[in-house]
Amino acid sequence: MHTLGIPRLAGAPKAALVEVQSDEYGGGRPERMHSALFATTMRELGLSGDYAHYIDAVPAVTLASLNALSLFGLHRGRLGALVGHLCAVETTSALPSKKYAAGLRRLGFGKAATLFFDEHVEADSVHEQIVCRDLAGGLVAARPAVADDILLGAAACLAFDDLVGDHVTRCWEENRTSLRLPPG
Predict the structure, then answer these.
(1) Total domains in the fold of the chain
(2) 76: in domain
(3) Which among 34, 46, 112, 116 is least buried, having the fewest CB atoms inside 10 angstroms?
(4) What CATH number is attached to the domain comprising 106?
(5) What is the Cβ-side half-sphere exposure of residue 110, based on CA atoms within 13 angstroms?
(6) 123 Rama class: left (phi>0) / alpha (psi -120 to 50) / beta
(7) Does the residue 179 lie in any domain?
(8) Would you state the pLDDT for residue 183?
(9) Beta carbons within 8 Å of 139's beta carbon, 6+ residues apart
């Protein structure tokens, strides 16, 4: 969804978003697309790697950030919020990805299972600089009025992440699944 911002940008901010999205889509190598790497991780863990296979099992709180991203992406006037959302994603993902990869290794999983997360440790450390300085910074330099919307998008992303974390933690403490149970 962040890709929807590309035609709405110009100059250095546009180039910055294209650079980050190019990495997400494998830089022209289908096997390096992050969606393909994630599907491999899922299969290595004995789960389905099919797109949206578990969509009906996840609670609404899990999808809230993506729904906000869709709102930002589908409304031209929310370009700043779209950029802010991406800034929040890229600046908060490297450390958790490092921990996920380490946890999988501790459990005995190999490179095929950890590659998605290992890739994000390195890539997102670079991406956070690009999206904050070149994309958001460049956009604010060109259009100062969009600064508040960038903060809105980042705050929304982080707030939804907190809600998901609270939900998962509460379920863990209550010794129950965080997933939706099938009807019946």
Answers:
(1) 1
(2) yes
(3) 46
(4) 1.20.910.10
(5) 3
(6) alpha
(7) no
(8) 62
(9) 9, 13, 79, 80, 83, 146, 150
Structure tokens at 7: 């035609």
pLDDT of residue 181: 79
Q: What residues make up the domain containing 12?
A: 2-173
Q: Is the pTM of this model over 0.85?
A: yes
Tokens of 109: 């999983």
Cα gap 37→164, rounded to integer Å: 23
Q: Is residue 89 part of a domain?
A: yes
What pLDDT is attached to residue 24? 94
Q: What is the pLDDT of residue 135?
A: 99
d(CA 37, CA 26) in angstroms, rounded, equals 9
Instruction: Identify whether 25 is part of a domain.
Output: yes
Distances (CA, A) of 35 to 6, 52, 106, 120, 168: 19, 11, 24, 12, 23
Where does residue 79 fall: left (phi above 0), alpha (psi -120 to 50 degrees), or beta otherwise?
alpha
Tell me how far apart the alpha carbons of residues 150 and 173 are, in angstroms, rounded to a whole number: 35
Torsions phi, psi for 41 (to 5 deg): -55, -45
User: Exposure of 151 by Cβ count < 10 A (0-12 exposed, 13-18 middle, 19+ buried)?
Assistant: middle
Measure the CA angle with vertex 7, ends 6 and 9; round to 5°: 70
**Type and span of the H or E element at 169:** helix 147-173
